[in-house]
Every structure is written in C-alpha cells, then in structure tokens.
Amino acid sequence: MPERPRAILILGGTREASNLAEQLCRREGLRVVSSLAGRTMKPLTGAGEWRIGGFGGVEGLATFLRDEGIDTVIDATHPFAETMSLHAVEAASRIGISLLTLLRPAWERRTDDRWVEVGGLNEAALAVPEGGRAFLALGSQHIGAFAERADAHFIVRMVDRPRQAPPLASCELVIGRPGDTVADEIELFRSRSVTCIVSRNSGGGSYEKIQAARELGIPVIMIARPVPQPGATFATVDALLSAID
C-alpha cells in the first residue's frame, strides 16, 4: 500500500496564501488543501484542493483536521483575522498537530506620511474629521462602526456590490478590487475629492493606496494590528517554506 501523502491545510484569503499553495504543490508527497472564508462572490483560488466557507468554530475546524488527516496547519489569513487565527491555535492544539503562521510585516510610517494611528474601528470612526470625505479601505463587514457619523461622507470600496445599502447616512460605492498602480489610486481619490483614508495596517500588497495618500498629502487613519497569536511565525513565504521538510 502506498504511503499516505502528508496533508497540509492552508487557511488562506491572501496573495501570500495562494503563492504558498502553488509552491507547495510543486513538491512531491504533499496534499495541499486551501480554505477561504468565501466573503467574495469570485474568490481568488489557485493550486491544490480548495474549500470555501467557515468550519463552524473550533469544534468544526478540529473535526475537519481529524477527518481529513491533516498533519500541518498553516495560518496564512489576513493579519486582522483574529477569530480564525485563534480557532487555528486551539484546534491544532486539540488535535496535536503543528501550526505555522505566515504573517507579513506591517507597514512602517515614513516621515512624509500623515498617519493618525488608532487602536480599532470605533476609534477610527471618531477620528474622521467633521465634514470630511473619507475613503474606507475596509471590508464590508467593518463599516458599521461609521454609521453614527452622519456629519461625514464616505466612499466605500467593495469587491462585490452588496445586496443591501451600507448603514451609512451619506456614502457612495466603488465596486471592484484595489487599483493596480499608485496612479490608479490617485485618480480615484481625486475624482471622489477624498480628504482622508481609513485603512487597517495590513502590510504586504495593496500598498498603492498608502503611497497615493502620501503623494497627495492626504491623512491616513491607520488602524493598528491586533496582537498576533503565539507560535512559529514567518514573515515571508520563502521563510515558511524552508521550515517545511
């Protein structure tokens, strides 16, 4: 009977996760399964096996790990995916398998950046100037914190058009993914007369909006990252790959 391939579950949703899956699939003797939360209608998938949707908490994730014979979990989720990262730690510990985390470095403020650094969404909502035209570079599930700010106008970018209008007194939607270049983002901000940007310090790609804000002299209300979960953490795909025999 042939030996069972080593099974790796990648908790994805980031460009790094897709890159990681592609490179792992080139190795012999590995079964690579990637999981996405499924928050967009057309998620970006790639190499290996894929599953879309949540697990049903720690118990559901632990059951999946056990049933699928997963040997290693790689948490390559968004740096702000606190709940999923916590579930990964607890489920991997419960099953007794290894957990590796891919956490890209946070963006660092430059001397020519105009950042207002805040600790969370509620603080960010309070920091939006009265009468401002704020660009929300956030997921659709995070804009509710700004619902009380009827004294400001919001420009909200979403990958998919929502089924219901956002809970904001004054807003307009920009449907699509972030611009490919800094020039694209500059044009967007100028065309919408944006006066400030609200962003989470995600690090990695999608930095064009931050560069565009810098060039235009637009202040950025930057939401700090949550405290990462403990464990083996790697800043790059290559560094993590080197830790997998």
Summarize the structure.
This protein is of the alpha/beta class and 245 residues long. It is built from seven helices and twelve strands. The longest helix has 14 residues, at 82-95.
Question: What would you note in describing this structure?
Answer:
The two termini are 23 Å apart. The strands form two sheets. A six-stranded parallel β-sheet has the order 3-2-1-4-5-12, sandwiched between helices. Strands 6-11-10-7-8-9 form a six-stranded parallel β-sheet. It has seven helices and twelve strands. The protein is an alpha/beta fold. Helix 2 (57-67) crosses helix 3 and helix 5 packs across helix 6. It has two domains: 6-105 and 227-242, NAD(P)-binding Rossmann-like Domain (Rossmann fold); 115-223, Rossmann fold, CATH 3.40.50.
Mean pLDDT: 91
Unreliable runs, pLDDT <50, ≥5 residues? none
* Class per helix and strand makeup: alpha/beta
- In angstroms, what is the radius of gyration? 20 Å
CATH T-level fold name of the largest domain: Rossmann fold
Q: What is the assigned CATH homologous superfamily of the largest domain?
A: NAD(P)-binding Rossmann-like Domain
Shape estimate: elongated
State the domain count: 2
What is the succession of H and E elements?
EHEEHEHEEHEEEHEHEEH
The largest β sheet comes out as: 6 strands, parallel
Strand element count: 12
> How far is it from the N-terminal to the C-terminal residue, by CA?
23 Å
Spatial strand arrangement across the major sheet: 3-2-1-4-5-12
Number of helices: 7
CATH architecture of the largest domain: 3-Layer(aba) Sandwich
Q: What is the beta-strand fraction?
A: 15-25%
Q: Give the CATH level 1 class of the largest domain.
A: Alpha Beta
InterPro entries: Precorrin-6x_reduct
Organism: Flavimaribacter sediminis
Pfam families: CbiJ
Pathway: Cofactor biosynthesis; adenosylcobalamin biosynthesis
